Amino acid sequence: MAKITLSNLRHSYEANPKTDQDYALKQIDLDWDDGGAYALLGPSGCGKTTLLNIISGLLTPTQGQVLFDGRDVTHLPPDKREIAQVFQFPVIYDTMTVYDNLAFPLRNRGMDEATVKQRVTSIAEMLELGDALNRRAAGLSPDNKQKISMGRGLVREDVNVIMFDEPLTVIDPHLKWKLRSKLKELHQRVRATMIYVTHDQTEALTFADQVVVMDAGEIVQIGTPVELFERPAHIFVGHFIGSPGMNVLPCDVQGDTVRFEGVEVAIEGPVKSGEGDLKLGVRPEYVSLGDGPLRGEVIHVADVGRHNVIDLRIGQSQVRAIAEGAVPPIGQVMAVAFRHDKTRVYRDGHIVSQPAGGAV
């Protein structure tokens, strides 16, 4: 396995890029430690697959370096990087048995059959494919075919990194949770460096120890699932992670006073001075009803099973709250409060408030 470093990385599909808008990947500097479980998370078109292809050697970046354990591999082809990749659609040989599919990467490298048998049997047991080893792959269900594809990446012990590019896209929803759990279990057992690319926040947050959130070719935040949810460093992260996403509201800041719709609200701490477009950010989970300085009219209630999502109109703004128990009727005017230590201020999309006693 290897530590992967991306240094001063940029990439454009234009012949002569001149501005940031010409780059599919803007400035990327990133370290992935050996043996970690990471996710690249972001919407379609944000640059996730471009970055993955640069790491794998399918693309050479316009600028910057890719290093494995400090060794520059930027211009090495894929077969010289010792990587394994699992794609959206299972890459297997339908005419071969499950055993032969799993054995193929090892046999292709000239390993003896005793070693091949030991590795294939071990990985098949981990993936719950032991009873299917002698069956042809063509007759298996899509989830089992994807398990084979995963197994072909896991069976080798000499890989620097295993990369998963939206591997559960074609899997039925009721099987996705099972495969996500299996992949997490496999990482804990084999301790391989794994990078999981997805636009699905649930997949990223349940698999990865560290999540890299991308938007428009840039990394907007890196953190644990808890860090990304509790303190989004960028408005995009607040929107993209959480269901529903973070409330992003207009506000005015004068010194230490923050006002929303003309009412003073308490926030987590001091706001860094500067110029720009200011917004208040608070997750629906931290909006409470029945007490507080604000007044909101209930305009919609959605029962999502575990709780209710309540839309309120406060002045000219719409605010969402998550609540349990009795549902207020449409049209009712209620007292509303924001939990102050979970209420942030953002300038031009970036967080500029700080926890009491902290630093921006």
TrEMBL record:
One term under GO cellular component: ATP-binding cassette (ABC) transporter complex, substrate-binding subunit-containing
UniProt keyword annotations, A-Z: ATP-binding, Cell membrane, Membrane, Nucleotide-binding, Transport
Cited Pfam families: ABC_tran, OB_MalK
Single annotated GO MF: ATP hydrolysis activity
CDD domains: ABC_Carb_Solutes_like
SMART domains for the chain: AAA
Keyword Cell membrane applies: yes
Sequence ranges assigned to domain ABC transporter in this UniProt record: 4-241
Listed name of the protein: ABC transporter ATP-binding protein
Family: Belongs to the ABC transporter superfamily.
SUPFAM superfamilies to which the protein is assigned, alphabetical: MOP-like, P-loop containing nucleoside triphosphate hydrolases
